[in-house]
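To whoever picks this up:

The parser on our side crashed when reading a file containing two proteins. I've narrowed it down to the boundary between the first structure block and the second sequence. Both blocks are reproduced below exactly, byte for byte. First block:
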Amino acid sequence: MNTATPLLLDLDWFLARAEERGAPLDARAAEAVLGLLALGEARRRTGLPEPTEELAEELLHILLPLYVSATEEELPGFVAALVALIDHTHEAGRLNAKRQAKLVARVRELAGGFTQAMTSPRRLTWPRLYGNLLRAAGVDATDPRAVRDWLEAFAARPQAERNAAFGFASSSPNEPLAEAAYAEALCAERSRQARPLLAARLEAVALAEQVRPRPGEGLLVADAPVGKPDDERDDWYEAQAAVLTDRWTAAGLDTLLRGPFVHLAPGGGSAPTPLLALVEAMAGQHLEMYGDAFAPLPPAPLADSPEEQAALLRSAPLPQLLARAAADPQGADGRTRELALASGFLVREQGGALSAGPSAEAWREGGPAELTGLALNLLGVLLAQSAEEEETAEEYEGEHLITLYLLCEQAGMTQSVARMAALNDMWFVPPGHESAPDASVPATGDYELPAPQALSAVLGLPALTESDRTDLIPSAARLVRLMDRLAALGITERTGDALSLTPLGSALLRDTLLVGLEGEAADVFPTREQALAWDAERLVAAAQWWPKRAARQTVGDWLDAQGTDGWTPLFEAISAACPEDEPARRRALLAALDAMVVPGEALYALLADPVLGGWAEHALHARGQAPDPSAVPLSARAVYLVDALEAVRSAASLEHRMTAAANEEEPELFAEVHAVFYKAAAAWPGGGPALLTALTAADPYTSAFLAEQLSRHPDRATAEQARRAWRAFQTSGTTRFPGRKPAKRAGGKRKRR
């Protein structure tokens, strides 16, 4: 190509050719399709860009939703322009009939995703959004004066009206309040990235084509600003990008949103909005823990209404402090000003003066949704600053957010500061150990770790010493400073050793998960009302993952709501056939029930159950009743023995981990497991080998780990049967450790005595 010829596209010829075919095209849609395909580095052997499947997908799903304003009614025009371009490429001999038909079919497939991308509030940029609003209001988007007049009128409207016009928030009452703030933050981030990307593509195409504009001409459009591309190259291509942005949105809009109306397009700084990082991290943490499995967190106490949540936020001391700083920047101390700037309560103008920012306006005029977004941005700032500051620095990336996530898992129930500190410091705390916060810790004043004996009780670690307590002090002090700092935002509360999320804290973190996992799990953090409305199968599938206290509370509430009709479906869900280790986890929920309150008729009816009959029999014996032994299937007795033996094995393994010397391996056979198995085998028809066969049939997964222990049993027949069971398990392709994924910090050091 002649290096003196600018990269201009023959739009007029393309439109005229469409007219000749009897299928006229929308000029604006056609220009955008041609221009963006050219920027996608399409070949231009015909003089116009030549589409491919990859370029068509990029155009429809990425580039048009990034740069072009259009009403939903206008969207078919862009697809039509692309199809017309494919037809032109075929007519020019650059695409055979078979490939043409395939490419057109692919474009039709992509059209649904294109419509979704162009209409999703999460895919907007500020120029696209305002271009849409201008067109919806009937404004001539090609008239710079009309565009400016509309922006002036829009800026004068109250914030609530402006927010409503954006359409970020869902009209559904079940949608999270944070959706509006998240969509706005995404809009800001996409806007921040769009201009440099467009400028870079313009430069790349210009260099690849070896073209330079002539005086009065730009690269793609003749009326683009010109200059000397070799001088101040970045600024020149940025100016070219601004012209294209205006042509595809509204005339003069780019300059207005970067100048006198910059307050209408917040988030244009050099870093993403803190809310985005927070949402991404929370969603990532949940997926790290549970993958794609249905694994909601247990319901926690929440504010009764959006209005109550807003009132809780307004009563929090930290945003009140920042609002005062926004009203009087010079009267605030340095730390407060720094936090106000980071959270948008203050902005620094070009001359260096400080003035009230968008968060201050949201604080003054905003409703529940605006205040929720403000609080989550502030939380993101607090976590980021705390991760870097010496007194609260993270030991590993994401530590503070994991701490908040673990508090979410506890359903608002109080936790021990000492226990949380030990987990953060990677002490090996027995996972099944439950204890209340230590009551001896003073409720006021500086936090003090419990004395060694009380610390042992809280952590489930025997015989801790004063030296152990001293080792834990730095982690506990760091945790307390972080939690007390978050308490100023109203999301945590601490009294002595007792720590928990507040209803406001649970609500805010719930919002981040619901927003971040859009479409993945609508009830990933259910309300109490949602959980009570579940059927038994859904309840059990979720509660099997929860801490015992949380499971006990929610399952108990569910049973109360169901009345006597709830027991039978609950037991059916617990005993349902499931893969790998899930049956054992479901049966573990029985420990969260108070067997003494199960109606007697429900227990007697359960005796014949092939899975839970043995448990029902023992529950009745605990009441002093003597059910007919013949009513219980042998398979149910095997299930009960599997769980009993596994409990003994787990306890023995835990005791070994707690007391063994460094690098001392577990014994090949725990004496406790041998003793319980020997006693059970003596009463089992066929003895040890038959019992192992029954255990394997009852629960292949759990019994496999017992078989590994029993493969060295003194009885040769029992040992051989155990080895066969263990080999069968190893070759079955079963995941050794399925289910919940461990947190990134899991598996750390244990605390030795």
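<<boundary where parser fails>>
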Amino acid sequence: MDIIDVSIIVVYILLTLFVGIWVSKKASKGLESYFLGGNNIKWYYLGLSNGSGMFDVSGTAWMVGILFLYGVKSFMFMWMWPIFNQIFIMMFLAIWIRRSNIMTGSEWILTRFGDKKAGRASHIIVAIFAIVATIGFIAYFFEGVGKFMTIILPWDLTLMFNGSELLSSDQSYALSIILLTTLYTIKGGMFSVVATEVLQYGIMVVAGILVAFYAFIAVTDADINSVLSTEWNNLLFGWELEGSWSGKYQAFNNLIDTQGYKMFGAFIGMSLFKGFFASIAGPTPSYDMQRILSTKSVKEAAYMSGFTNLVLFIPRYLLIGGIVVLGLVFLAPEMASSSALSLGDLEVILPKVINNHVPVGIKGLLLAGLLAAFMSTFSAFVNSGPAYIVNDIYKKYFKPNESNKHYIKASHIASFAVVILGVVMGFFADSINSITLWITSALYGGYVAANFLKWIWWRFNGWGYFWGMTSGLIIATLQFLIDQNKANFEAGTLLNDLAQIPAIYLFPIIFSFSLLGSFLGTFFTAPTNMDTLKSFYKNVHPWGFWGTVCKELQKEDPSFKKNDEFWKDMGNSLIGIIWQSSMIVLPIYFIVRDYPKAIISLIVFLITSFVLKYTWLDKVKKIPN
């Protein structure tokens, strides 16, 4: 690596540490200040921070790989998360969540189910989920950033002890970056996280623009057309996925056939099925929810969520598209000739392109940008996860009357604990892809049913929530253990057959068990106290099956009206998904020089933006401050 690139990275790291520590004094006023910034951070800074937090290096490496292999339609793979949950949050969920005026997602549960035995059971289970999810994501980051840094940086950091390898080079790199990020995050809480993420967002945007610009200069139209087929650029698909590759690139079609997504129509249908329920269930109790709860008002929560969508996708896909174009031209011929092409080869396209096909200066900025992507997402989780340990478990059940200084020290310890557990889990993960599929398809599958019902059905109670979440998490954990041990099962056995099924197709099973637990827990126990339900419904005012509670409220206030905006919100969400998708495919088509489709994408973006101005933005402006 050239000294210029190393200097850029060092300056970036020092600047990030300086900014993070410089603002840390504001975090010492108490837990609300530490975890929510005292509800005093401007919504557009939170939006930039939220977008920056979603711009992670492991996810970027994965997206580069699937765009390379599957073409433009690969953006639909992100519906597994589902990525369009951000649209549902923007349209109505941010408003519902922010009305609660609490600190964490599990504390929010008490406003829905009350603070008695059933409510506390549901409160504890969602706090446990938040902690487990945080640990899982830290493992995901550990696995990704280590592989990335080892290929990019020239130094071998392998640690030996008595002739045996104690830490591999990628593990040493990952631990170093994680330690730096953990220090400023723990020191400054939400203020440090947001301040550094705004800085990191700017670096990522510059990196994306520079990579896209370089791809235009270094690669000609003829170079791209010699690799890509018409099918690669095609958004349309049938029930079965048609291979995008021909001739000497046939090996890529063979790789597609081994990944379990050949029946693409079924895969997309399952992703949309899961995505609908997961999106209405709302954001998981992590950094995304913390950003919503950190805004000054309900109106600003909606603004922040909309702004997150606007600032995230175009710069991110300029970077991804630029890397993929360079990979297609410079790496595809050699990869296609490999006799053992695997998914792991796709995961290292990003670092290989940067290492060998990006010039000095741009390489340093790009590495700083991707390092920023890792650090921003990681810091967001390190800030959000411990909030559940300290505020929802330690403070509520063990030490309710301690000083702010005591709780902030407890937060520091909790942060180190979740980081250590996440790193330990990362040591035992097979790949980025295995953790991605566990988080998106299994762990979240256990979350969806109970959290979907909590919004829409008044009779659903705390015990229903507890058993719905518990049964979902148990099944999700079993699925993960089966997947991680699939090499040990004999062919023809039930466990071996289950291990070969892609995780997304197991979602209905996980969802069904969780739904069964939710219903049994609800019907075998008493309803939530009516005063709690009335307070929740009057404050949050969701749509759904709330007629019984609404009638009770109307006895006290005849002017009170039921929320009947389900179809309006769903219509806006559909338009929003199209709007979001246009921001993803626009930079891709632009980078691969398919200008007619790029123009169509731009027109779709402008039309949907115009429609949402009247159907969503004007409505948000009328919300009282």
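After patching the parser it read the second block fine. The CA atoms of residues 51 and 311 lie 7 Å apart. The longest helix spans residues 169-218.
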